[in-house]
Amino acid sequence: MFVKKGEWIRMNFEIGMTIFVFIMTMSIIFWRPKGINEAWPASIGALIILLMGVVSRGDIVDIISKIGGASITIIATIVMAVILESFGFFHWAAARLANLARGSGHRLYWYIQLLCFLMTLLFNNDGSILITTPILILLLKNLKLKPHQQIPYLLSGALTATASSAPIGVSNIVNLIALKIVHMTLYMHTAMMFVPATLGLLFMSWLMYMVVKNKLPKKLPTVSYDIEEIFFTKHFHPLKGNISVETKRKRTQFMLKVLLFVFIMRCLLFVASYFAIPIELVAVLGSLILLMWRWYYLRTNPIDILKKTPWHILIFAFSMYVIIYGLHNAGLTTMLVHLCEPLVNQGLFQASFIMGGLVSLLSNFFNNHPALMIGTITLTEMGLDPITLKTIYLANIIGSDMGSLLLPIGTLASLIWMHILKENELKVKWKDYLSVSLIVIPLTTLVTLFLLFYWVQMVFS
Length: 461
Known about the structure:
Elements: H1 2-31, H2 39-52, H3 57-86, H4 89-101, H5 105-122, H6 125-142, H7 147-163, H8 173-182, H9 186-212, H10 227-235, H11 248-274, H12 279-298, H13 304-308, H14 312-330, H15 332-344, H16 348-366, H17 368-380, H18 386-401, H19 412-423, H20 430-459
């Protein structure tokens, strides 16, 4: 009897401590005292979980096998984003946006939406934020727009860049990790998700436009200086083999070649997935080729990329997964299975909305990384048939990638976005954020879940 009581006390202590460590870790990540990197609290939380013995060595091996390929793929694509900056892509893109807008603030909105969507598809949501936010800051400062005029562009761009990770699984590290758990290929994810998620994003962009259009300037001021010309004149010289500064046309041709290469490598990821080739091999090969290309053109030693690459994302992903495994081993997912299984068994339509809504809620309170991981592990323990499992998993993705944007702390990408704004002395208040997100995000999430259900019924049933 004493042994049983002692065992009961130990289990409850482990559950209580694991939940406490998780809540404290997420609180520090959201608070970020003195701008602390999110990898620090996550790694400390993971270390405490490991020292408690809640996560075993076998669990660690399993964690590495699940997040290893996804982490390498994401880092490789972020390396490509960093290389783009070296080529002067940010300044070139800012100048192109100004030209395409042709003085219209409303036209500029739609081109920003397109840019953010494409950058997430070509790279990933974190990489897209690292690319598009500096581009928009460059452009809006050059246009000398007032702060209240800049906010709609910055906010709508960030929301689209983050939500655009839903259509293809490779655009978000947590999506890639979850794919591994449900044994789903990138090819199948895209076939089931691209159409409904893209239509959902179009609805989201239109709805955001309706919300912010009165805040957009009808006519844009004339640019104060040529962003592109000044940058290339300062950083590059017309040496043999270097990027030519002679004409904007040549620079545009060069940038389009780079983007075409990135697009081809992106397509090859899906080809690799279809033929069961590890996609991280393709991603690393692509980043190495682009790195050599940069070395040839700019005569820049590739070593500098080691300093610029956000390696902390690897530490963050591993540490969060250790904490989630701790919650799983402590019995959280078992409890969620008991709570959710009766709801899921009511039917696919109800299950999609219930699970998608649950992950949305958890993401906004605890960030989408742990929310999607918990939701996905819970699904795998319900004994669902393959199509039902995959459909509800994709509903979780919609909750994780779109529903998580209700609050500015719901995703790692939005945390990175706020950090970039702070570094550039730009402030978007919670009031400004919520004035858009409270209207746009719930409706977008519901519409996309509805589209997913009927797309799966129409094509895969």
